[in-house]
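Board notes (copied after class):
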Amino acid sequence: MSHDLRADLDGGPMHRSQWVAVAVCVLLNMLDGFDVLVMAFTGESVSTEFGLNGGQLGLLLSAGLVGMAAGSLLLAPFADRFGRRPLILVSLGIASLGMLLASVSGSAIELGLLRVLTGLGIGGILACSNTIAAEYASRRWRGLAVSLNSTGYALGATLGGVLAVVLIGEFGWRSVFLFGGVATLFAIPLVLVGMPESLDFLLSRRPNRALDKINRVARRFGRAPLEELPPVSTGPGRTGVAAGFRTLLGPRLRRGTLILWTAFFLVMAGFYFVTSWTPTLLVEAGLSATQGLTGGTLLNLGGIFGATALGVLAARWSLRNVLVVYLVTTAAMLALFLLALGSLAAAFAGGALIGLFVNGCVAGLYALTPNVYDGGVRATGVGTAIGIGRIGAILSPTIAGTLLDAGWTPHHLYLAFGAVFVLTAAALTLLRGERTGTPAAASSPAGASSTAG
């Protein structure tokens, strides 16, 4: 029966092909980390060439996030209708096209439009790659698999910054976009070879030759094939893209959906405040420009370890509980951060630790969300939550700048955004026990939302 196959993947050991699929997802997130932050890497050079002021550069920095929000909201539902793998391939094509065309853009307006296009593809990739990683990891390692995706994002951002310095110095800012576009394009054959279609999608949507495709996945992962298709599911998400959105807010899933939307909005707002403003605020608080940039770099380095650590902890304890601890710890560290500036070493260590925990908060939400939805609406649920989060990401840097202009001190801003993480922790405590990602729980990607209310 199909239930046995799904249960075997959930409870059995991880086959090497499952780890390969997760590794491909991590690579996609590395590319996303590079592609998303490429505008930050090249901002000064772009401003010089096009004669931009601070406000115009800010619009360029936000353009990619606007595209990501649109991609998560508009493209992700098609993954539940036509398949995760096809949408990832289409999204890779869109992102690579946007990056390659950006390398020959002739004006700031043209570059901004191409950043929206690139973000559109990245939004589709992020929603699907996290869904695939969750669906093909066993229950024990699901939290780690999705958290590793966030580690890939931080790795891509960190390596991208190093590569950008070298490429800009040798070839100019356009070479950074060219490199990102070519690398994204080369990811397409890796997906074709290393990432099979989602088993949950095949079981719920029943495309042509569904049994053959399911058995191909089963054999690839070292599992026995099915003799026949299981009974057709009557669950949600089978009647179209619009129905997927309606299902998210139906009586069965409304509570969890609204909690996740709130959590994503708040956490992404806090995350992008920290990553966008910390270098500037450190200078405002008395450090040099170089020291401020160093503090910002340490945030990304800390994030590499934070997401991985959360995944390891989630393999032993409830993911929700681990995430709540991360959120509260992040809030406490933000409140105390500027007090450490009396010692440069303490300030840098504090920056790295904040990066560790704040990136872990984002990774934890990505890992928790697939457990709330069944296979029929999972990509829609994950993509929509990410899209809502991107709205917070777009708004928070602007709100922080407005408050700073109104006379708020850096310490006041860190206290305010620390409260944002506390509010998120409080919201997540409202999730019911079936959704918290407890390792020993019987829930799976295929049925984690069956008891939702």
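Comment from the instructor: The radius of gyration is 21 Å. Residues 234-241, 433-453 have pLDDT under 50 and may be disordered.
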